[in-house]
Amino acid sequence: xxxxxxxxxxxxxxxxxxxxxxxxxxxxxxxxxxxxxxxxxxxxxxxxxxxxxxxxxxxxxxxxxxxxxxxxxxxxxxxxxxxxxxxxxxxxxxxxxxxxxxxxxxxxxxxxxxxxxxxxxxxxxxxxxxxxxxxxxxxxxxxxxxxxxxxxxxxxxxxxxxxxxxxxxxxxxxxxxxxxxxxxxxxxxxxxxxxxxxxxxxxxxxxxxxxxxxxxxxxxxxxxxxxxxxxxxxxxxxxxxxxxxxxxxxxxxxxxxxxxxxxxxxxxxxxxxxxxxxxxxxxxxxxxxxxxxxxxxxxxxxxxxxxxxxxxxxxxxxxxxxxxxxxxxxxxxxxxxxxxxxxxxxxxxxxxxxxxxxxxxxxxxxxxxxxxxxxxxxxxxxxxxxxxxxxxxxxxxxxxxxxxxxxxxxxxxxxxxxxxxxxxxxxxxxxxxxxxxxxxxxxxxxxxxxxxxxxxxxxxxxxxxxxxxxxxxxxxxxxxxxxxxxxxxxxxxxxxxxxxxxxxxxxxxxxxxxxxxxxxxxxxxxxxxxxxxxxxxxxxxxxxxxxxxxxxxxxxxxxxxxxxxxxxxxxxxxxxxxxxxxxxxxxxxxxxxxxxxxxxxxxxxxxxxxxxxxxxxxxxxxxxxxxxxxxxxxxxxxxxxxxxxxxxxxxxxxxxxxxxxxxxxxxxxxxxxxxxxxxxxxxxxxxx
Length: 688
Known about the structure:
Layout: E1 2-5, H1 27-31, H2 76-80, E2 91-92, H3 93-103, E3 108-111, H4 118-124, E4 131-133, H5 138-152, E5 156-160, H6 164-167, H7 170-178, E6 183-189, H8 205-209, E7 215-218, H9 225-237, E8 243-249, H10 250-254, E9 256-257, H11 268-272, H12 280-292, E10 296-300, H13 308-318, E11 322-324, E12 340-343, H14 350-358, E13 361-365, H15 371-374, E14 385-390, E15 404-407, H16 410-422, H17 430-435, H18 441-453, H19 468-478, E16 484-487, H20 491-499, E17 508-509, H21 520-534, E18 542-547, H22 548-552, H23 558-563, E19 569-574, H24 579-588, H25 605-608, H26 618-624, E20 629-632, H27 635-647, E21 652-657
Parallel strand pairs: 3-4, 3-5, 5-6, 6-8, 7-8, 10-11, 10-13, 11-12, 13-14, 14-15, 16-17, 16-18, 18-19, 19-21, 20-21
Antiparallel strand pairs: 1-7, 2-9
Helix pairs in contact: 3-4, 3-9, 5-7, 5-21, 12-16, 13-16, 14-18, 19-20, 19-27
C-alpha cells in the first residue's frame, strides 16, 4: 500500500526559543517530541499492537467511567464475537472492507454512492450489522460522521465516491483535523491502471487531503485492506484524535481474495512517539505549583471531554475556579455557580477572562491556546505560571510558553493527581487547606465580585420581541439542560455556547477551529443516529440551534432526517442576515452592509414586518421535505411552540424570528486583550 502522512506545521517543543523565552522544557517533554506531534506521523514505519475504539463516553461528569477514547481497550470484543459469513470462500475486496468495518465494531456509517464506490455499497447490503444513513450531500455525511464521533467518542465513518464525491469531503476532513475528531473517511478511486490519466471523476484525493488528515492511504493490494483498516481506526482514535482517509481503487474493490485478518500492523514508529503515561514526578510538579499559588485557574479544553469526572473531582477537591473553551464546554458543570466561570475568550464571560488575566497560576488541560481564546498573546495570562498538560507535544509551548510542561494524556494525569489528593498529598484538599488558613477563599470572592459586576445579560426586548439569547434559555429550561446540542457557525453558535448550560461532556457539537457554516443539521442527525445506537434516543433530545444563513448551506439534509425518521429538532434563529458579520460591520465598518443581507432586495421583513417578506420561507421549505414546522414572532408564543416541537414524534423545524441588531456580548476584538472587553451596545448604537 502506498501511504502518506502529515504533521502539524509548528515548532516542536524543545526547539530553540526566541531570546525572550523563559527557560527550557523538561527533558522528558523534549524526548517525547523529537520527531512530530503525536497527531501527525513522519515515517512509513509506524506500528502498534492493535486497533482501538472508545467505549461510549456519554455520561454525566459526575460519573466514574469517563476514560479517554485512546485509553480504552482495543476493539477485540467486536472481532472476537464476529463470524465470517463467507467462511473460507473468496470474496470481493469491497466485502473485505465491509467486514473489516464490522470487526471494528462499526454499527452506523454515512455513505453516498457513485461509480467508484458502487462495489462498497453493494457489499454494505450484504452486512447484517452495519446501517448506512444516506445523507443527500457528501459534506452532509462527513459532518454527520463528526456528529456521531463527538457524541460517542468512537470513530465516525463516512464513504464517498471518487472525484467530486471525494472533494466534497474536504471541508469536513479539515474540520475534524482542527477539532481533533476521530474519523475514518473511505473514498472510491478509479482503477489502478487509470490513476494519473485524468480519467473520468479522477482526483488525487490522497494528495489533496494530505495537509488536513492525520494520515491517509492509497490501497494498492487487496491483501492490505484488513491491516489498513485496523491501522486507520487506531490512528484516528489514538494520541490526539483526527481524520484518516483510505482511498480504494475500484479494481481493488472487485478483486477476489480470502482475507487474513490477524496480520501485524506497521505502526512501530508512531507507537514509539506516543507520550508515556504521566509520572508521579509530573503530578508533583503540578501540585507543587498549586501549593505555591494564591490565585489559580483551571483552563479546560476539548482534550478534557473524555475525563469530565476527573476534571470535576480535581476542581472541587481544591476549590479552584474553572474556565472552559468552546470545545471543552460541559467538561465541568456550567451550573456550578461557585467554581464555574463559563467560557473564556473572544465571547467569553467578563469574569472568566478577568480570572485568567489576574491568575498567578494557569492550569491548562487539553487546550491549544487558540487565538480566539488568547487574543493578544503577550497579554494573555501574563501574570501566571503556566502548567500545560496535553497529549500532543507539538502544542506544548507552541503559542504560550509552559513553565510546567507535561506531555501525557490529560485524563491519566488528573486521575493520578486525584489519587494523590485522596492520599492527603501536602494536605492540599480544600477542607484541610482552608482549615489552616490556606486555600483560595479570597480569590474566589474576588472573582465572584466580578461576576456580580458583569453578569451575562442582554437588552430588554421591545414588547413581544424575541431575543436569541432568551430563546436559547427557553429551550434549555424546556429540555432540563439534557439535550445534545449542535450549531452552525455565527452569532447563534456563540449565543448557544453562552446560554445553554451544559453539565456533561459530549453534548455540545460545534465547528470550532474551522468554523464551518452548514455544520449544525448534519452533525445533529449524526448525533441522533449515535443516540439510537446507544439506546438513548427516547430520553435525550437532539437540538440544532442554527442561523438562517448557516442552515441553508446544508438544508438538503432535511430529506435525510425525514426519510431516516431521525427526530432532530431544529431551532432557526432567523434574522435574515449573516449576523456575526453584521455585528462586525456595526462595530468596525460604520454599519456599511457588504452583502450580509440574505432576504429579498426589494423588501426586508425587518422594515415591513410583513411575513410574506421573510425569505427564504423556512417553514414552507421544511414542509416540502415532509418535516413539520412552525414560525414564531412573539415571546408569548415561544414556550408553546417549544413544547410542540419537543412533543412531535419525528423531526421538527421551529423558525424563530429575531432582530438583526442583536450583538454577541461580551466581546474582545480580534487581537485585543481582556482590557479591551466590550460589554454593551447593539445595532442601534452609534459607534465612534
